[in-house]
Amino acid sequence: MQMNRWRADAQALLFLLPFLVVYVVFTIWPMIKGLEMSFYKWTLIKKMKYVGLDNYNQMLQDTAFWSAVWHSLLFVILSTPAMIVLAIVLALIANRRSRLQKFYRSVFFLPSILSVAVASFLGLFIFQPYTGLLNTLLHLIGLLPDNKEIFWLNETNLAWIAVTLLTLWWTVGFNFILYLSAMQDIPEDVYEAARLDGANDSQIFWRITLPMLSGITKTITMLQIIASFKVFLQIYIMTGGGPLDQTRPIIQYIWQTGFRENNLGYASAMSYMLFVILLVLSAFQYWLNNRKGA
Amino acid sequence: MKRRFGFLVAAVLVLSMMLSACSGGNSNNGGANEAANGGSENNGAPAAGEKITLSYWTLFSGGDGENMDALIAEFNKTHPNIEIKNTKLEWAEYYTKLITAVGNGNGPDIGISHVTGLDDVADAAGVDWGTYNENLLNATVVDGKHYAVPIDTHPLIMYYNKKLLRDAGLLGEDGKPVLEQSADGFTTFLSTLKEKLPSSVTPFAFESKDQDPYRLWWSLYKQQGGNDVISEDQKSAEIDADKAAKAAGYIQDLYVKGFIKKNDPDFYKTFQSGAGAITMTGVWATGTWESTKGLEFGAMPIPKIFDQEATWGDSHTIVLPVTKDEDPAKRQAALTFANWVADNGQIWAKAGHIPSKPAVIEKQEFKDMPYRSDYVAVADTVAFGNPSTKSWQIRDLAIVKYLNEVWANKMTPADAIAKMQPEIQKVIDQ
Lengths: 294, 430
What we know:
The complex is a heterodimer. Chain A has helices at about 1-35, 55-60, 65-95, 100-110, 115-125, 135-140, 155-185, 190-195, 200-210, 215-230, 235-240, 250-260, 265-294; strands at about 40, 45-50. By secondary structure, chain A is an all-alpha fold. The two termini of chain A are about 40 Å apart. Chain B is α+β, with helices and mostly antiparallel strands. Chain B is about 45% helix and about 10% strand. In chain B, strands 6, 7, 8, 9, 10 and 12 form a 6-stranded mixed sheet that branches.
């Protein structure tokens, strides 16, 4: 009996091995290497010299680092609640019994299949002045006078709105699918009982649907916060982090430091700081969820 | 227990996702050149019949890519002893890959950047430095040693739409713009265009941020005799604040006065479609304009706005990165190739580049191509920056960022220059 289990484990390991090797070589090993790098002055070419905690010290005093962290956080604040509300609304629409049910499902999910580069370039075409979709629409309905243009990507506040809207459109599909499947898991008899008791639609939504979704909401919130914190490419493509680095997120700053300024040591130190920030956020959330669950 | 494990997985996921975002370019990209080298382990010239294979990393795409392919094919045909193998890389990742590969000794035999000295093999390969344009060559010499073979220069020049200039009465009998070479002269030229042409036409089709306005700023800064933005020893920022601010102020005015369409998403298209009277960009646009149906255009050096003629420009240079084996026969063959490419600059010039050897400019094949001869003289007045391993970091991270604010009229030229100085210093100190 014992022997059989051991055999089963060995078999499982055999099947896991290919993935495990790749995972160790390309994920675990770079993680350890990154930690080592963060204590050195380390260029793209080679290890230069041991500097102890210098990189971390520099980071604490680097205003560019903290403002980049703030920009990522700002994006989390802008995108996460909007993402969740929109996903629920879309899921409610697609969950209604309707002939268009299948249509809704595919349309809401479709943008998610685009790669970040494609989505961001569409974003550029939507928000660019003179010929962009949005400004053209605003001209058409007369909200914007003919001789005026809104420079969405050149003003800090507008650029944040543009990037957030683009990200919403692009990635809400994933959360939408999660919500939709959770909604379909809610047993029909609960609704039936509620209706028999005379509950109206809004009561049903607030008292039944929403509470029954709380589990998935917690998961989505956590995933979304992490995903939003890691925002990079859509901002990089649409605004380049400008104007004056006012929309530059932390990942872009790390990438610039490592691969543009040739300073992998400092970039690694910042990566680890970001790791700690995300770890603390996730731990806090985990604790919050568990406390409520108990 | 299960939940605890779930948290651990989440933690590892967070970490690994971040790292994959930041460590992408660190993998080993070399190795391509480990391939056969026909047995010339010993130094000296290859014996007859022995073939040397050289790996060559290029970053050219589009028209440049095709022209370089044509050059390589022709070279391989005419040099039976040497075979060049071209590996095309994306421009955006080229330098990162080259730096990493050279760093661990797996770089290509031939590349495009500043890496190693050439003088020791130049004689053997029959390279006569005297046949190169002196101004271009000087930009590749550090401490009296040659570090690269320039194959061209691609400066900022001015293009004009002949039809629109004629409509505005600003095209002379000789087909050249009627334009006084001075600060006021150029402004007057633009305001006449603005008055005389329909409002749908932009007098000056130009970018509102980043590289091309930076190039114009650098040109105007150098036209006043501004010194380099970093000192000779590369230790300190020493931008000439007055001249830099004057140049930036002049360009800011062009935006403020409405000569340039604000935040034009595609000024190439504006000029191409006949909606822009003049434009300024690198010579590489010549090939693009030529292939545009119905665009009647001319090319000229950018006007002398201030005291002396000067313009921004860069060179494509061929270099021989340090490799593990340092095989002299390979080095010599590589340099033979570089010199041959420069000698046959007329093929490379199809895209619009100015050849690096004056003799090429005299070739009939080159003269037969229109437009190019109108701006070849610019090669002598290109103002290069001091060679520095950080030149583009200084440009993109410290200078362009603030100039963009000036163009958007959110910062005064003087403020922007004052902010640049410490930022440049910061890049240098890192």
